[in-house]
């Protein structure tokens, strides 16, 4: 089971804070030291527009993925998937790098919550790749997903990434 956690930008410092999300007098805030007591720990009032939930995923470098993050995703063919079945145990002898085939698709997209799932888009305006496809053992996945957090929709962009408005879709390819 994944950990339920949120992040948001502190309205006083502009820094990201992580923890449990609460509302006090219609003001959202995050407790940065969550505990079994709902109002224990440091309380930081946050900009509601920047609040995003932890997806349960970490990227290839170990960075946690949150709603609102921008992912660069590469989809590769799985070279052994057509030749082995789940029961023969042969998947364990390979590393993902050894079975990564040809690059099928590459895209950059924001993570959003849509119809009860975190999703990214493989082309501008699409919401066609649920993040649940990126969980688990990629040796048993077709395609193999390799992804990295390259920014988020709230911070200043580096390179060619710009703020994304929800009406503009989520793909940035």
In short:
With 173 residues, the chain is mainly β.
SSE topology sketch:
Layout: E1 6-9, E2 16-24, E3 27-31, E4 43-45, E5 52-58, E6 64-66, E7 69-78, H1 96-99, E8 100-110, E9 112-113, E10 118-120, E11 129-130, E12 144-152
Number of helices: 1
**Global shape:** elongated
The biggest beta sheet, please?
A: 6 strands, antiparallel
Task: Report the sheet-strand fraction.
Answer: 35-45%
Structural class: mainly beta
N→C terminal distance: 32 Å
Can you tag this structure with a few keywords?
mainly beta, single chain, three-stranded antiparallel beta sheet, six-stranded antiparallel beta sheet, 2 domains, disordered C terminus, 39% strand, 12 strands, elongated, 173 residues
